Amino acid sequence: MTSPLLPTYARADVEFEKGEGAWLVARDGQRYLDFGAGIAVNALGHAHPHLVKALTEQAQKLWHTSNIFRIPEGERLARRLVDATFADHVFFTNSGAEALECAIKMARKYHSACGNPQRFRVVTFEGAFHGRTLATIAAGGQKKYLEGFGPKVEGFDQVPFGDWKALEAVIGPETGAILIEPIQGEGGLRPVPPADLKRLRALCDEKGLLLILDEVQTGVGRTGKLFAHEWAGITPDIMAVAKGIGGGFPMGACLCTQEAGKGMTVGVHGTTFGGNPLAMAVGNAVLDVVLEPGFLEHVRKVGLLLKQRLAELKDRHPHIIAEIRGEGLMLGLKLNVPNTDFVNAARQQNLIVIGAGDNVVRLLPPLIIDEAEIAEGFARLDAAASAMEAEIRGVAQRGAAE
Ligand SMILES: *Cc1c(COP(=O)(O)O)cnc(C)c1O
């Protein structure tokens, strides 16, 4: 049967009906352990009682008013985000790409407000992913996302990841900002070493550039800090957030310092849906849990446990797994076999994992996952890797017999 949906996704033939914590239940009753969390979105797992309560209570009161009016839930969430971070201001969006669009526009407007409208260019890094709008595919610079969509949006200069010579060479009189993910997500779980983030901060200060961090995937506790840049002890000027911030409700945010946001005055930017009461109620509820004492310690603890188990997995299956990457509960396996095959093998074991670039499989469990579920996930990864080894041996034996 053909689907009426535009066929832009090669969807797995599984239909989930409900979820509970780190588990998903399919229509046929099968239970899956969810190490994907909707691509790092369901930070508190599925059907978290505090989120369900916040959403249903707000749903009975008020969904949407537009940003023509004051939205107290949004002011409260913005205040809490400001209090917990480097930021002075927050702009709420519906997605990561929109948070990035706001960040890029803000950087351009900042230099324009400073009397330097020519400084509109942004430096980005190979392997980056910043979303699928026209500007964010230009920022990401990946050919497969740009091809066929007409002239690339002007103003993005890409350099190889970790190539400081190329970076310094590309910065010119038109450069206004550097945009980077603290850990590349879609690009294959490639972390920026904390010393390099420090060096980027210093370079931006020296050249009068704004540092924009894309924490859409790394943010809201995913790496064991509220935001990943805290590991490096630096702060950005502008930061894009989304995915986990709504725990599954579509929302994002662009955070900035007073200085970086100084061009964003009345009327220069806007959104119909961004920051509506329903989204803000859920965003506040997510933050209630993530900011609870001990929550981030839990993420660090189970993240470390999972990472240790993955090292064991690599030792057990050296022909399948080449390398372990990542931080907290944003972990990846760089594979010696096609990652799509591994994703399928894991699903055969009723474990959801997610592919990424550079032949990596991502493990992004909900942050509420417990030690028993980590052990269960390990057992299923082990079974998936063993099944792949058996398959490879079978193919080799059949080949030898012919
Ligand atoms: C997912 C992601 C985006 C895009 O977010 P959308 O909500 O899909 O628009 C941008 N940057 C990073 C790092 C992401 O992981």
TrEMBL record:
Its cofactor is pyridoxal 5'-phosphate. Pathway: Amino-acid biosynthesis; L-arginine biosynthesis; N(2)-acetyl-L-ornithine from L-glutamate: step 4/4. Its EC number is 2.6.1.11. The modification N6-(pyridoxal phosphate)lysine is found at residue 243. Pyridoxal 5'-phosphate binds at residues 96-97, 129, 214-217, 272. Belongs to the class-III pyridoxal-phosphate-dependent aminotransferase family. ArgD subfamily. Its main location: cytoplasm. It is an enzyme of class 2 (transferase). InterPro entries: AcOrn/SuccOrn_fam, Aminotrans_3, Aminotrans_3_PPA_site, Class-III_PLP-dep_AT, PyrdxlP-dep_Trfase, PyrdxlP-dep_Trfase_major, PyrdxlP-dep_Trfase_small. One of its GO terms (molecular function) is transaminase activity. Binds 1 pyridoxal phosphate per subunit. This is Acetylornithine aminotransferase. Keywords: Amino-acid biosynthesis, Aminotransferase, Arginine biosynthesis, Cytoplasm, Pyridoxal phosphate, Transferase. The keyword Thylakoid does not apply. It catalyses: N(2)-acetyl-L-ornithine + 2-oxoglutarate = N-acetyl-L-glutamate 5-semialdehyde + L-glutamate. May also have succinyldiaminopimelate aminotransferase activity, thus carrying out the corresponding step in lysine biosynthesis. Homodimer. It holds the Pfam family Aminotran_3. It is found in: Cytoplasm. N(2)-acetyl-L-ornithine binds at residues 132, 271. Coiled coil: none annotated. It comes from the Bacteria.
